[in-house]
Amino acid sequence: MTSTNGHSQTLETDQPGAAQRHGGKVMRFHLKIWRQANPQSAGRMVDYEIDNVPTAASFLEMLDILNERLVARGEDPIEHDSDCREGICGTCSLTINGIPHGGQRGSATCQLHMRTFRDGDTIYVEPWRARPFPVIKDLVIDRAAFDRIIQAGGFITARTGSAPEANALPVPKVAADLAMDAAACIGCGACVAACKNSSAMLFTAAKIAHLNYLPQGQAEKDTRVLNMVRQMDKEGFGGCTNQYECSAVCPKEIDAAFIAKMNREYALASLKDITTGLGSAVD
Amino acid sequence: MNPILAFYRSSIGRKWVVAITGLVLFGFVIGHMLGNLQMFWGPDQINSYAVHLRDLGPLLWIVRIVLLTCFVLHIQCTIALARANRAARPEKYAYYATKQASKASRTMIVSGLIVLSFVLFHLMHFTFGWIDARNANLHEAAQDPLLGPGRHDVYRMVIAGFNHWPVSFFYLLGIGLLCWHLSHGFASVFQTLGLRNHRVEGFLRWTSGGLAALVFLGYCAIPLAVMTGILTDTNHPFGTPEQHPDAGHGAKTAAAVAR
To answer: Rounded to an integer, what distance in angstroms lies between the CA atom of residue B45 and that of residue B151?
Structure first.
């Protein structure tokens, strides 16, 4: 099954033998999925049995199949986030058997396929767990805390109008490569979900590093790290205890060495703030 | 907000405090171990070392105050961080799993608190002499009776202390947990201070484990040697008996004093 259109496929697989007609095998799973009606109500894990799942289905397509059947039975479908389904947007966010994005190296939930599970497996599906990421419904969480960290300093201040000549500002190759590695972060929040402290340090460090490596980011280097770290703390994320679970589950394999860079730059910026004062820009 | 206070109250600022105080305490752990190992060279070596330390006078008090400050800050900051970390995840996962976090890294608060109780016991045992008052105040035989008792006999105090197997067992446990704590803590210092990258990552991991193992062996050697009879009042592997002919005699005198 190579179609990118989950819905037309899932409707077919509902008919007995549909998957076999496509030449694939089918699987059966016991699912335990977090259901929560709204942010205020208490949620709980609910059991679902699902069969006739094509081995070629992705995890999200499997949920689509389940939802089609729930709707057919007159039940509320399971709410979950997804968008591009090709691992580049950072929208999907499921903790599968305790590991954000399911534990397949360098991939998001949407790139995880049911063939990586065994037939008859019990699979736990939960939302990201962190106080700054409140559940909106079922598996959908509010990641606006990340937006506020970006608003605190994840930008450069530049004159609007005609773009400057690109070659006028030399960027060393090493700096460009490192900045690009950091900029690969898609802001999905798996780092927070994987961390036992719900720490957002990998995300914040990547967003700081990708601008601080580049010449365009130098003017606001110190205020950026101070403001973004302070916003991160204000949102209620925990601290890093150097286990690097974040990096291990990151679909973009962002390196935890960026956190070391942030730690260093934060201390240096604080020292400058103490000795010379970075001005009222930092509060 | 005052920028110093802002740094101290931030998550990264507290981590810096934990890392720097941890490094100072680690330095003490190494120095203390090297000092202790002089036990194997016999009473003269360790007892004169103890006299040298006491003779440092005000310098010794500065070291003590720095160590105590580091100890208090290290604990205060880690507890503040741990509380914030717990608060960041009010709803736990129904299915708990990790990909790579070491057991040591996941039990730092527990190992740290047990090490704290061990350190308090250790101070009461050998420094304040509250646990075993009879053996805490031993002195070597006087060179000259007019000058009062001889040097504080650290050597026999340690031998007597470790001759109780429950005490030795608690020491082995305490040291084991301290090294478990160090195996994660030492490498973490470099990440927190911003000194870790690809090139040193593997080196730091191995150094951290290796140093923890060395510290474990260095500290455990003494209680194990006492319990197995390698170290006794009169027997020590590296010392030459001629240098301190009063070792056996001193024991009798001190026992008489204690009575």
So the answer is: 12
